[in-house]
Design a protein that fits this description.
Layout: E1 7-11, E2 17-20, H1 22-28, H2 32-35, H3 40-43, H4 66-69, E3 73-79, E4 83-95, E5 98-108, H5 119-129, H6 134-141, H7 145-158, H8 164-176
Antiparallel strand pairs: 1-2, 1-5, 3-4, 4-5
Length: about 190
């Protein structure tokens, strides 16, 4: 067992969480009982700055040469009570038995990431902000209603909000603050 006063969790060979300390509970807002024995990428759903999943299958730490895993990584982590947080994460990887220790160091309590929306997601939320309905957006962009719904749900998941209205409010706040999404391309036909 790993004991640490810092924010720490431990993952086993099956990528299931074996240890989730009190500091992780305080940081993530997820009790130990909810985290233990769950797949790490299901609980710790971190993303890079570009919006790509960091915690995923296959584990990026296992696919990286060990010398590169010694360097800390900066990622964005959704937390239950405080929104998205920018953290530096350090790793220790032991091979027999395979164990991955993760130490989390919050970098900025008030971090608000630039919107990592795809061009299509940005189009959809731009149209939502103009008062368009989902069926009107689907017709306007020549995509199916289910595709519109999927994009909205993914943005809600990305921003860790429960409703379209919350995501739209966040989108409009970012737009009014002058942040523009990466790869902004209003003519994209990506679905």
């Amino acid at each position: 067992m790993i004991w640490s006063s810092g924010t720490c969790f431990v993952v086993n060979r099956q990528l299931r969480i074996d240890h989730w300390n009190d500091a992780m509970t305080d940081f993530m807002g997820i009790p130990e009982a909810e985290a233990l024995h769950q797949k790490c990428f299901d609980v710790f759903q971190s993303r890079s700055f570009t919006g790509l999943n960091f915690c995923q299958m296959p584990c990026p730490l296992l696919a990286t040469p060990q010398s590169e895993t010694e360097e800390p990584v900066i990622i964005v982590v959704p937390t239950r009570f405080t929104g998205q947080r920018l953290v530096q994460i350090h790793f220790a990887l032991w091979e027999d038995p395979l164990t991955i220790v993760h130490w989390i160091h919050p970098l900025n309590r008030d971090f608000t990431p630039a919107t990592p929306l795809t061009p299509r997601q940005h189009q959809i939320f731009s149209l939502l902000s103009q008062g368009k309905t989902r069926p009107e957006i689907a017709h306007s962009l020549a995509i199916t209603l289910s595709t519109v719904n999927t994009h909205i749900r993914r943005v809600c998941d990305l921003w860790d909000v429960g409703t379209e209205r919350q995501a739209l409010t966040y989108f409009m706040r970012i737009q009014s603050a002058g942040h523009s999404p990466p790869n902004r391309d209003h003519d994209s036909n990506t679905t």
